[in-house]
Amino acid sequence: MTNNIKLLYYKDLVARGYGSKATIWRKVKAGQLPKPIDCGGRPAWPESVLIEWLDSKIRQTAEAS
User: Fold this and answer.
1) Smallest Cα–Cα separation from 33: which of 62, 14, 41?
2) d(CA 33, CA 46)
3) pLDDT tens string 4-62
4) d(Cα 17, Cα 33) in Å, to the nearest integer?
5) Backbone phi, then psi, for 43, in 5-degree steps?
6) How far apart are CA 33 and CA 25, in angstroms?
7) Which helix (H) or strand (E) holds 42?
8) Sequence-ordered list of residues with C-beta below 8 angstroms from that of 53, at least 6 positions apart, any chain
9) Sheet (strand 7-8) strand order
10) What is the pLDDT of residue 2?
11) Which residues pair with 44 in a beta bridge?
12) Are 50 and 36 contacting, i.e. CB atoms less than 8 angstroms apart?
């Protein structure tokens, strides 16, 4: 069985509207984005982790309404 894990790098997050590289790092430090994993010396985010994280934020917002 093959695991198809899609990794997203800074350029991918910037293209998806998460902000600049500096903004993304500030968001990670502030807990507004999940921490990246080390992928050969480069920070990367598994796409599934970002999706789960965003889903949880959407649920929290909906519950607070």
Assistant:
1) 14
2) 12
3) 889 999 999 999 999 999 999 999 999 999 999 999 999 999 999 999 998 998 898 88
4) 13
5) -70, 135
6) 9
7) strand 42-46
8) 33, 34
9) 7-8, 42-46, 37-39
10) 55
11) 37
12) no
Residue 62 CA, chain-centre distance (Å), reads: 20
Contact 39/7 with Cβ under 8 angstroms?
Answer: yes
Q: What is the CA radius of gyration of the chain?
A: 13
Q: Any idea what DSSP says for residue 32?
A: S
Instruction: Give the closest residue to 11 by CA, choosing from 39, 45, 41, 48.
Output: 45
Helices (H), 1-65: 10-15, 21-29, 47-64
Q: How far apart are CA 39 and CA 12, in angstroms?
A: 15
